[in-house]
Design brief:
2 domains, alpha/beta, 12 strands, 39% helix, two-stranded antiparallel ribbon, Isopropylmalate Dehydrogenase, globular
C-alpha cells in the first residue's frame, strides 16, 4: 500500500525542484500517494492566508510532508511561514545534516556534521514589543521541557546513527539564566548516555572551531537562534545551501524541506539546483522506512555531482533543473 504524503510545491522555484524530487523518488521505485497542497504567497488572494488551515489538516492527517521553499509575504501575515508551521505542528527539531560531496566546490573535504536545532522557542518565539520610539525589546524564552526534549533527541539520534559525540552549543557564560538552563539540562541528559561522548562549546568559539577544525565535531545541539546561524555555517563548509537538506521533526509529524529560499527571480527558468530538495526527499524516505531507495538516490546524486557534466550552473555545469534530475534518474 502506497504511503500517503502531503506534497507542498511552494512558490518561486519550489514547484520546479519539487517536481524534480518527485520524479527521482518515483524512478527509485517508491510508491507514494501524493496529497498535493498549495501554500505560500501565491495563495494569499485565494485563501486570505499563505498557510490555509486545510494544508495543516493534511499534514496532521498524513503525518509526513515534503515541502518546497515558500515565500513569506512582506508586510502582513506570519513573520515566517516556516516558523508558523513548526509552531502549529510542534515540530521541535530542525535536523540539518552537512556532508561533503565530491564535485561540490568547497575548501573542505570529508565533512560529516549534523546540527540539531531547537525549533519552537528562544528569540524566535517572537515575543517582542516597541518600548518607545527609540527602543524595542525581545524576550529570549528557554524552558527546561524544550531543552530536555531537543537534547534527548540529539543523543537518541547519535546512538541510533552510530555517532560518537554530542556537543551542546550555548552562551551560558553571559546569558546565565536562559542559556544556563539549556546547558544545565544538556548535562543532565548527557549523564543518561554514557556511551556517547559529551562536551559543550560557547557559540562564538564554536563558530571559529568549525572553520578551523570541523572534523573533530559530530552532532551539535543548540537553541533556536544559534542553530539557525551555525547550521548555515555548516552548510557553507560543504558547498552552500544548494546542497543543504533539512527535516522538521515532532513526536507525530515530520516535514522535510530544503534550507534555501524560494529564489523568485529564477521562477520558471529551469535553472536552480535541485540537490537540496532531493536530499530532503532522501531524509523523508529514510523516515518512512524506504532506506534502500534513499541510499540509491543519495549515491546517484553523489555520482552525478562527482562527474560534473549534467549539473546546474552553481555546480559548474550548464544543465537545467529537469536535466539534472534526468541524469540522476539515469544513474538510478
Amino acid at each position: 500500500m502506497a504511503k500517503r504524503v502531503t506534497l507542498i510545491p511552494g512558490d518561486g522555484v519550489g514547484p520546479e525542484i519539487v517536481e524534480a524530487c518527485r520524479r527521482v523518488i518515483e524512478a527509485a521505485g517508491v510508491s507514494i500517494d501524493w496529497d498535493v497542497q498549495e501554500a505560500g504567497a501565491g495563495v494569499m488572494e485565494k485563501y486570505g492566508t499563505p498557510l490555509p488551515t486545510h494544508v495543516l489538516d493534511s499534514i496532521r492527517a498524513n503525518g509526513v510532508a515534503l515541502k518546497g521553499p515558500i515565500t513569506t509575504p512582506v508586510g502582513s501575515g506570519f513573520r515566517s511561514i516556516n516558523v508558523a508551521l513548526r509552531q502549529e505542528l510542534d515540530l521541535y527539531v530542525n535536523l540539518r545534516p552537512a556532508r561533503s560531496m565530491e564535485g561540490v566546490r568547497s575548501p573542505y573535504r570529508d565533512i560529516d556534521l549534523v546540527v540539531v536545532r531547537e525549533n519552537t522557542e528562544d528569540l524566535y518565539a517572537g515575543i517582542e514589543r516597541k518600548v518607545d520610539e527609540d527602543t524595542a525589546e525581545s524576550v529570549k524564552l528557554i524552558t527546561r521541557r524544550a531543552s530536555e526534549r531537543i537534547c534527548r533527541f540529539a543523543f537518541e539520534y547519535a546512538r541510533r546513527e552510530g555517532r560518537r559525540k554530542v556537543t551542546a552549543v550555548h552562551k551560558a557564560n553571559i546569558l546565565k539564566f536562559t542559556d544556563g538552563l539549556f546547558l544545565e539540562t544538556a548535562r543532565a541528559v548527557a549523564a543518561e548516555y554514557p556511551d556517547i561522548e559529551f562536551e559543550d562549546r560557547i557559540v562564538d568559539n564554536m563558530a571559529m572551531q568549525l572553520v578551523q577544525k570541523p572534523h573533530i565535531y559530530d552532532v551539535l545541539v543548540m537553541p533556536n537562534l544559534y542553530g539557525d546561524i551555525i547550521s548555515d555555517l555548516c552548510a557553507g563548509l560543504v558547498g552552500g545551501l544548494g546542497v543543504a537538506p533539512s527535516a522538521n521533526i515532532g513526536d507525530e509529524i515530520q516535514v522535510f524541506e530544503p534550507v534555501h529560499g524560494s529564489a523568485p527571480k529564477y521562477t520558471g527558468m529551469n535553472k536552480v539546483n535541485p540537490t537540496a530538495q532531493i536530499l530532503s526527499g532522501v531524509l523523508m524516505l529514510r523516515h518512512i522506512g524506504e532506506a534502500e531507495a534513499a541510499e540509491r538516490i543519495y549515491r546517484a546524486v553523489a555520482e552525478v555531482i562527482r562527474e560534473g557534466k549534467r549539473v546546474t550552473y552553481d555546480l559548474g555545469g550548464d544543465a537545467g533543473t529537469s536535466e539534472m534530475a534526468d541524469a540522476i534518474i539515469e544513474r538510478l
